[in-house]
Amino acid sequence: MTHKQKAFEKTAATIIKQLERRGMEGYFFADSKSCTEAVLNMMEEGSTVAWGGSESIKECGLMDALKTRSYHLIDRSTAKTPEEQREIFAKSILSDYFLMSSNAVTLDGELVNIDGNANRVACLAHGPRHVMIIVGMNKIVTDVAAGVDRARNIAAPPNAERLSRKTPCGVTGTCGDCLSPDCMCNQILVTRRSGHPGRIKVFFVAEELGY
Fold first, then answer.
1. What three-state secondary structure class fits 172?
2. Which CATH class is domain 3-103+115-139+188-205?
3. Among 76, 53, 191, 190, which residue's Cα sits nearest to residue 134?
4. pTM to 2 decimals?
5. Number of CB atoms found within 10 A of residue 108's CB
C-alpha cells in the first residue's frame, strides 16, 4: 500500500472501533476490487438485493458485479410509472440486502445522510435484513455538523447537476438552504447506533468514490 493508503487504514481502524460500540460493523479495503469481492461473498446467492441512488456503488464496480451472480435484483430503474416506482420501493424494504453509500461518516462512527425521496434513508433506518454501505475515504468528516455541511455543499451540487435539479446548489454550487420543489435535502438522518447488531456494515475503500 502507498503511504496515503496506510494512513487511510489507520483512520478507518479508529472509526471501525467506534462503529463496533454503536452496534455496526466496519471493514477496510485498499481498493474497490477487493471491497466488491468481499461484499459479494457476504451475500448468499438467491438473496433479494436492492439499492439506493449511489454513484459510489457504481464506481467501485459493485453494480456490474451483481449481474454476474444469482441474486434476485430489485431494480429501481425498471419503473415506468410512479406507481411502479412505489411498488419497487415497497419491495426494497423487505429485501435481504440493501446497498448504498453514506454522504458522510464521522470519526466517531456516526453516519450522516441526506435524502430527497427518503427511500434510501428509510431502508437504512428500518426494513432490509442487511445494509451494506460502500464509503470512499473522501467522505470521512470530523463530526455530524461537518457531515451535514459536506452533504449539502460537496455532495448536493454535483448530484443536482447529474439529476438536472433546479436548486440553488445546482445553480451556484453551494447550498441555499432551499425549500424548492426540486430540493434534495428533505430528510436528514444521523445514524448514531444500530439497534440490531451487525445489520449495518460499512465498507471503507482507500479511494475517492462518489460525491
1. helix
2. alpha beta
3. 53
4. 0.94
5. 15
Residue type, 133: I
C-alpha cell at 89: 420501493
**pLDDT tens, residue by residue, 131-188:** 999 999 999 999 999 999 999 999 998 988 988 888 989 889 889 999 999 998 999 9
Q: Nearest CA to 177 among 187, 188, 169, 165?
A: 169
Domain boundaries, the chain: 3-103+115-139+188-205
Instruction: Compute the distance between CA of residue 109 and CA of residue 133 in angstroms, rounded to an integer.
Output: 13
The pLDDT tens digits for 90-139 are 999 999 999 999 999 999 999 999 998 889 999 999 999 999 999 999 99
CA atoms within 13 A on the CB side of 142: 3
- CB neighbour burial string for 154-163, b if at least 16 within 10 angstroms, e if fewer: bbbbebbeee
Instruction: Residue 206: count other Cβ atoms within 10 Å of its Cβ.
Output: 23
> Residue 60: phi, psi to the nearest 5?
-80, -10
